[in-house]
Design goal:
This protein is an alpha/beta fold. The chain is built from five helices and 17 strands. The chain has a six-stranded mixed sheet with strand order 3-6-9-12-14-15. A five-stranded parallel sheet has the order 1-4-7-10-13. Its main location: cytoplasm.
C-alpha cells in the first residue's frame, strides 16, 4: 500500500507543477515529496503502535525540508506540498485525496484538550500560501482557501474562502472535477464594498452641490482612465473635493 501511494505522490507533482521535468528531479529536488515520503513511513510505524521512532523520523524530515507533519496525521493519496517551507500539519489532522498545500500553511489545533483537535480536509482542496486552518472542524470537498486566510469554522463544499477571519465569497454549488490551483486570483469583498460606498458618496455629493450650493450646470470631465467625475462648470468648490473616487483609495 505504501509504494502505490508514493507513485501517486510523484505523478501528481507532474500534473500540478509545470516546473517538474523528470522523475529523478522530483525524487531528489522536491522537499514537498521528501516530507510526504518521510511521513508515509512514520505514519505506518505510528499505526503499528511505535512512538519514538516515528517522531524521530518526523523531526528529521522537519530538519531537512522545513515541513512539519506529525506522524499521527492521516493524509490521502495525491497529496502535494508546493515549495513547502513552514507547512505544519498537526497530530489529529485528516487530509483527503488530491489536496494541494502551499508554503507556510498550517493545519493546527486550538486549546490543550486531547482527542480530535485539528481540522479535517476534504478532497480536491487547495490551501494557499500562509493560510491557517485552526480547530476541529471539517472543510468540504472542492474548496479553495486564499493565501493568508484564517479559517476557524466549518466550510461547506464547492466554496472559495478569503480573509481574516475567513469568509465564503463564492459558493458555486457545482462540483469541480479537477482542482483549481489559481489561489492568487481571488475576490476581494472588502475592496468591492468600499467601491460601492464610494460610488454612493459621489452620487450624494453631486446632489448636495446641485441642490444646496447653487451649481445648476455640471460638466462631465472624461479622464484618460475612462472614468467620469462630476464637477461644477463654474465657481469654486467648497469643502470636500467631489472628484474623490473609489479608484483613488
Amino acid at each position: 500500500m505504501l509504494f502505490p501511494q508514493l507513485r501517486r505522490d510523484v505523478r501528481v507533482i507532474f500534473e500540478r507543477d509545470p516546473a517538474a521535468k523528470s522523475i529523478w528531479e522530483v525524487i531528489f529536488c522536491y522537499p514537498g515529496f521528501h516530507a510526504v515520503l518521510f511521513h508515509r513511513v512514520a505514519h505506518w510505524m505510528y499505526l503499528h503502535k511505535m512512538v519514538l521512532i516515528p517522531r524521530m523520523i518526523s523531526q528529521l524530515s522537519r530538519f531537512l525540508t522545513g515541513i512539519e507533519i506529525h506522524p499521527g496525521a492521516k493524509i490521502g493519496q495525491g497529496f502535494f506540498i508546493d515549495h513547502g517551507t513552514g507547512v505544519v500539519i498537526g497530530e489529529t489532522a485528516e487530509v483527503g485525496d488530491n489536496v494541494t498545500i502551499y508554503q507556510g500553511a498550517t493545519l493546527g489545533g486550538t486549546g490543550k484538550e486531547k482527542g480530535k483537535r485539528h481540522p479535517t480536509i476534504g478532497n480536491n482542496v487547495v490551501i494557499g500560501a500562509g493560510a491557517k486552518i485552526l480547530g476541529s472542524f471539517k472543510v468540504g470537498d472542492n474548496v479553495k482557501i486564499g493565501a493568508g486566510s484564517v479559517v476557524n469554522k466549518p466550510i461547506p463544499s464547492d466554496t472559495t474562502v478569503v480573509g481574516v477571519p475567513g469568509r465564503i465569497v463564492l459558493h458555486h454549488g457545482v462540483p469541480i472535477k479537477d482542482p483549481d490551483l489559481r489561489h492568487d486570483d481571488l475576490p476581494d469583498p472588502v475592496n468591492e464594498m468600499l467601491k460601492c460606498l464610494m460610488h454612493r458618496v459621489e452620487y450624494l455629493e453631486q446632489r448636495l452641490i446641485k441642490e444646496e450650493s447653487g451649481y445648476n450646470v455640471f460638466e462631465i470631465i472624461q479622464h484618460n482612465d475612462s472614468s467620469k467625475r462630476a464637477v461644477p462648470a463654474t465657481g469654486e468648490r467648497e469643502g470636500c473635493d467631489v472628484r474623490m473616487r473609489s479608484d483613488d483609495l
